[in-house]
Amino acid sequence: MNVSSRGVKAQASPIRRLAPYADQAVRSGRKVYYLNIGQPDIPTPEIVMERIRTYPGKYVPYSPSGGIPEFVEAMSRYYAQHGLEVAPKEMITTVGGSEALQFAFWALFNPGDEVILFEPFYTNYATMALLAGVDVKPIPCDGRTGYHLPPIEAIERAAGPRTKGILLCAPSNPTGTAYTAAEVDAICDLAKRLDLWIITDEAYREFIYDGMKHESPMTRPAVAERVVLVDSISKRLNMCGARVGTLVSKNAAVREAALKFAQARLSPPTLGQWAAAVIDKVPASYTQSVVAEYRKRRDLVLDGLAGIPGAFARKPEGAFYLMAELPVADAEEFVIWMLKEYKKDNATVMVAPGDGFYATPGRGKNEIRFAYVLEADALRKSMDILKGALEAYPVKVAP
Amino acid sequence: MNVSSRGVKAQASPIRRLAPYADQAVRSGRKVYYLNIGQPDIPTPEIVMERIRTYPGKYVPYSPSGGIPEFVEAMSRYYAQHGLEVAPKEMITTVGGSEALQFAFWALFNPGDEVILFEPFYTNYATMALLAGVDVKPIPCDGRTGYHLPPIEAIERAAGPRTKGILLCAPSNPTGTAYTAAEVDAICDLAKRLDLWIITDEAYREFIYDGMKHESPMTRPAVAERVVLVDSISKRLNMCGARVGTLVSKNAAVREAALKFAQARLSPPTLGQWAAAVIDKVPASYTQSVVAEYRKRRDLVLDGLAGIPGAFARKPEGAFYLMAELPVADAEEFVIWMLKEYKKDNATVMVAPGDGFYATPGRGKNEIRFAYVLEADALRKSMDILKGALEAYPVKVAP
User: Fold this and answer.
1) Which of B306, B333, B305, B341 has its CA nearest to residue B395?
2) Residue A59 to residue B52, Cβ atoms within 8 A
3) How far, in Å, CA of A14 to CA of A331, rounded?
4) Which residues constitute the signal peptide according to the record (chains A, B) (predicted)?
5) Fewer CB within 10 Å, N side or C side of chain B?
6) A295-318 pLDDT, tens digit each
7) CA distance B266 to chain A (A)
8) How far apart are CA B269 and CA A269, in angstroms?
9) In A322-375, where does DSSP find H-type helix?
10) Cβ–Cβ of A264/B225 closer than 8 Å?
11) Residue B168 pLDDT > 80, yes or no?
12) Of the ranges A138-152, A252-266, B13-27, which one carries the lowest mean pLDDT score?
């Protein structure tokens, strides 16, 4: 009586698997600054929270498998506000972006197919691929060039006969990289040439800094039928726990398959959809102030890193993550040590070890991922703790 | 550029795929009585609804991947109230019972393994199996004996070298059958002898009539390590749209695998868990009155069927479904005809065609499934409409 191979092979989340060490630190009386997980501390728009408090139902019924029409229509208007033409019928509401991704893997690929991911990548992509029987083809990106894409020839060389798709997360979790129009054009062109699907994960669409513009494969007509957009309200409404996302496709066959998967799990969450059915009415000022806040936080983390000998990070353009090199040989050991052994003013910091975001063995060992989701003062304290921890860390790496 | 084989093979839900015909009937001005889907009209307990309206957060954060501790602890006490010993650590909170089932298929079986289902079965089991690469081995049960299990020797003969598990839904959706202690004992004994997993879907645990007692494989110590309980708050709290369920196992390896799958999709819905974290405090009188109401409705449907020449159903013991034979050759055609062509007092009825609940080709063609989820007056009218429709139906079946 053994569990399945996929049950054994699936990787524990590098973002969540160290939680027991953090729990122990809290039980021992220390404060933990959590920079390991994309769970922001910013309030949800009041117009949305008010709908939860005034939910009019006497019970909580299933929603249609593809989503509540009012929510889907609001999302369509929201997309128009962001320059994307998406009709309500081109959308399937999902249980967060996670399920949209799962549906995309199921709908687009057969077991044994291969999908290109740019490394480092959001770690759950690998588990979702495993659960769909799909192999991951990681293409390394270099932190020294801000994890931007390698030359398109390098990507083309990596594609083989089993390669059926490319997954782009833009702006990227975990690197914060926002791809340029030229990069997105090149990916679309390659996908067309090699007959590949494009999955584009745009959960952080609005979170772009320093005047850069979000670029989406969805706006490239030449690949309209081969793009699947995976999306989520989690970050833009600070409703990660509502579990509401969308799968968008202009391809009727893809939507038909996804709708059958959606019917098999019956319904996405009704309360979250009900609350978020005003997403198109959230004032632009809300998003602007959130984005400004994140930009400030990003700069605080970068300032902190600049003061740590041997640490390195290039300024990322978007999302609320960044990867940094630390002067340690094994970042996971260092993170566990911070949680188990270190404190400054009775507090410590939790970040995610970098190697969990790589599929290539050995890569990312000296990197960590920050989710800069705490307010400025907590971030300043966190960076100070990190600096102190690196000074106190007994395991020295050869210079 | 083709979608995947599983995208093509997945079956559209027989419960939901006729929805466009019903929508059209509504648009044309007719009233439709929906008896096709297990979406009850009974209010959620006030103690639960009140928590939604007083949700204290300023935003809606992720919950832990395995569930909010307060919810998990409340479920543990709820299980104790129902004679099941389940420690909080033996439970993983899921996105409805659907996801618990998906996790069980992923954790227990490898692609190519086979699982025994008793036919007719809840149709989404087949899609979940397909998406896990698992084959379904249907074992027919006979409506004339209330869809109770065939002799254990027949089940044993059907098991082959690839058979790795048995799935029991008790009481059953779609038949309403509640299995006896002897039936459950025999299944447990067989599972032990043939080294099989047992998945037990108990979403309808409380819905048992006429003094029968719910029997669960979870209470049989001899199979404690091989049972996975798939469960949901949807029906017992009338919160189908909250999307909160549980996977329960005494087997640490199963839980470890399921927790990794849970981490990959981050979090079950926070609002539903928050609301349902008082499930152990819902007064027993609530459940008693709900069960009494369903028993009354079951009897109304049976009374109605008794007045229809050529219709047949044995009285089921539980859940809020029943399967009935109708005097038609193709029940799906009849259901579509009712939605497209028939009206009585400007109303019609939607039920689910029976063949969607069978894997064996040709079976169930003359059956329909009722979900008796409407109040007494609507049910009486529905049965009257059904009777009239059968009289008016132009396609006659040979007697």
Assistant:
1) B333
2) no
3) 12
4) none
5) C
6) 999 999 999 999 999 999 999 999
7) 8
8) 7
9) 331-341
10) no
11) yes
12) B13-27
CB atoms A265 and B8 under 8 Å: no
Please judge whether A62 and B239 are an interchain contact, meaning their C-beta atoms are less than 8 angstroms apart. Answer: no
Amino acid, res. A7: G
Q: Tell me the pLDDT tens digit for each residue of B35-84.
A: 998 778 899 999 999 999 999 999 999 999 999 999 999 999 999 999 99
Verify whether the Cβ–Cβ distance B106 to A225 is below 8 Å.
Answer: no
DSSP, residue by residue, B360-378: STTTTTTEEEEE--S-HHH
CB contact under 8 A, A95 and B95: yes
With a CB cutoff of 8 Å and minimum separation 6, the contacts of B280 are: B74, B75, B77, B78, B81
Residue A314 contacts by C-beta under 8 Å, 6 or more apart in sequence? Answer: A143, A144, A145, A146, A147
CA distance B373 to A325: 59
Provide the β-strand partners of residue B368.
Answer: B324, B353
For B65, the closest chain A residue by CA position comes to: A16
A46 touches chain B (CB under 8 A): no
Nearest CA in chain A to B123: A264
CA triple A229-A133-A159, angle to 5 deg: 65
In Å, how far are A119, A178, A181, B166, B230 from A173, measured between CA atoms? 11, 10, 18, 41, 33
Mutate: best of B58, B59, B113, partner A, most A CBs <10 A: B59
Residue A215 reports pLDDT greater than 60: yes
pLDDT tens digits along B177-224: 999 999 999 999 999 999 999 999 999 999 999 999 999 999 999 999
Record the tokens describing residue A260, joined without a space: 């059958």
3 state SS of B207: coil
Contact status, residue A250 vs residue A227, Cβ threshold 8 Å: yes
Give residue A19's pLDDT. Answer: 87
Q: Is residue B347 within 8 angstroms of chain A, CB to CB?
A: no
Answer whether A98 sits within 8 Å of B197, measured CB to CB. Answer: no
In this prediction, the answer to ipTM > 0.90 reads yes
Q: Which residues pair with A163 in a beta bridge?
A: A114
* Start-end of H helices in B82-234: 96-108, 124-131, 152-158, 181-194
Cβ atoms of A308 and A390 closer than 8 Å: yes
Structure tokens that stand for B371 in this block: 């979900």
Closest by Cα among B245, B318, B243, B321 to B38 = B321
Q: Give the nearest partner residue to B241 out of A19, A58, A267, using CB atoms.
A: A267
3-state secondary structure of B138: strand
Q: Which residues of B283-299 are buried (b: 16+ CB within 10 A; e: fewer)?
A: eeebbeebbebbbebbe
- Give all domains of chain A, ordered by start, each with its CATH number: 5-43+284-392 (3.90.1150.10), 56-281 (3.40.640.10)
Q: Which amino acid is at B385?
A: I
Token pair of A318 as six digits = 């978007």
Q: Is the pLDDT of residue A399 over 70?
A: no
Q: How far is B391 from chain A (nearest CA, A)?
A: 32
Beta strands in chain A (DSSP E): 31-34, 91-94, 114-119, 135-140, 163-169, 197-201, 227-232, 245-249, 321-325, 347-350, 352-353, 367-371
